[in-house]
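Elongation factor P hydroxylase, pasting as requested.
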Amino acid sequence: MNTAFVVATHQSHQLVEIFNRCFLDRENTRLLGGAPEPLYLPASAGSPAQIHFTQDFFSSALHECAHWCVAGEARRQLEDYGYWYAPDGRDASQQAEFERVEVRPQALEWLFSVAANWPFRVSADNLAMELGPSDAFKDAICAQAQSLTPLTVNDRTSQFAQALLAYYRPAKGLDWLFSPERFARSSL
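Structure tokens follow.
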């Protein structure tokens, strides 16, 4: 894949339009860029739920969409889904907990990245401690991604994946996307 071409043709505003077309009316949820840090805010009186992604980063948008797709109805009523989060600078035990809860979101981010023809990179999200993603974390993400099928994901995940395919890979379908060969461990 020519990275220069991908960057030139993949703009976060496209993801915002795709996501909002899918979910603003149906799920009362809006995707927004330009935030200094990612943040999820539940719907309030007269205002839809908001998924804020960092700056205009395409990967951040895909990642935050994955978190929203993982979160169940009760979690979507809580700011940041009520999840624990320790900022950059986590020690080894905090990093292990981060990796445990990030497997499913990063597997879905990978799925969305493939659908959007965008490179995926595992994120350990801990630059200050210089801890990259562990091999066990990569193995778990790979196993999770390879186990995904249209029957094992929720409707929101399937709808978003289909919309990404329609925009970025119109000749491909869900059967192509959900093939385990799309998620080779060697690519992590």
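Note for the archive: The chain has one domain: 3-187.
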